[in-house]
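Quick look at the format.
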Amino acid sequence: MKKILSIILAITVISCNSNNNKNLSSPDGKIKIDFRIDNGVPSYSVKKNNSIIINESEMGILFSDGTDLSSNLSVKSSSQKSFNEDWYPLYGEEEKINNRYNELKISLTNQKNEFDILFRAYNDGIAFKYVVPQQKEFSNYDIIDEKTEFNLSSKDSALWIPAFSYRRYEFLYAFSSVDDISKD
């Protein structure tokens, strides 16, 4: 009897944990987004060709009324879809642009409020956004803090432009490690 209870408990723990872990790959499979919730806190990480691009980084938003959508969360539901369409810009270098991605929609709840995170994985990058659907608790709201992190490795390189002056658009781009970006 103890063995049966142990097996049922193990299956329950595994199934509960897997419900809070979601994965998404780019159409070519080279980019992978891993989403998870640990102790109610959502986070994501990104790999390209099995190399970590963004280390585990926390997510969430905070509203002026004190509502905190960055903790005490669980996955309510999730769905995936793929999109592949050509579009033709009026101007630019390309005559035709292929818009192809895989999308993961994760609906989260803290038992009082709900919101969605939409991840998109393209063959050359990722995107995500928060979507707060209309609900009783949110007829009108002000976001005062976005708690989204981009936890890059100190060994990563960046192409950046200094933005510490009123004429920042006139500076030349710099290429350096993330740690060497000037903070003055």
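Next, a different chain entirely:
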Amino acid sequence: MRILALLAVRNEIRFIESCLRHLVDAGIETHVIDNGSTDGTVELVESWLGHGVVQLDHQPWVGRFELREQLGLKERIAASSAADWFMHLDADERREPPLPYPTLAEAIADVDRRGYNAIDFDEFVFVPTAEDPDFDGPDFEQHMRWYYHYEPTSPDRHRVNAWKRTTPIDLAGQGGHHVQFPGIRVFPRPFIMRHYPVLGLEHAKRKYGTRVFSDAELGDSWHGDRS
């Protein structure tokens, strides 16, 4: 079974190598879309071509972050790819199977055998704290221990963004949080998503301090907290 991660990046040099290594170890291939990176992300991704990264595409930078366009590109990639399953994710996320599955690929294969065609993820957000304010080093995944479970009782908590190949799909309609397609059957047990949005104050400033968001997406109530 071939499982393809759809990963869009812009200036993700801080996360990209550990993300790609994590996916390779999990048995997942990756199709990367770069959105005009200027920090060495492209060169690093190119070094992974043929070693887990199957393709690198380029989305021109237009001076603002346009998530809907990225998600549309992912929809088109999924429609044209021969992979069996797809997973939408960001470079600062780490996806894991629930116990007792040894790898993500084996877990997804079992979900497929059981007749389900989509997977939800419980999101655990890892954060710096006043006691431990800065994790902007190479081993943040080993050292960050403070986290919260993202809105476990909210109707917006779902992260249904792994799915079996089918057409058509709608990934953009729910901002990438909940893929939609006819006949969707979500596996009843959520998988795990560890999310590392910022590693410290200076990293937060670099990542979000100058980011410009699409006016149309802000008008649709996307990116509210980050903007």
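DSSP finds seven helices and ten strands in the chain.

See the schema section for token definitions.
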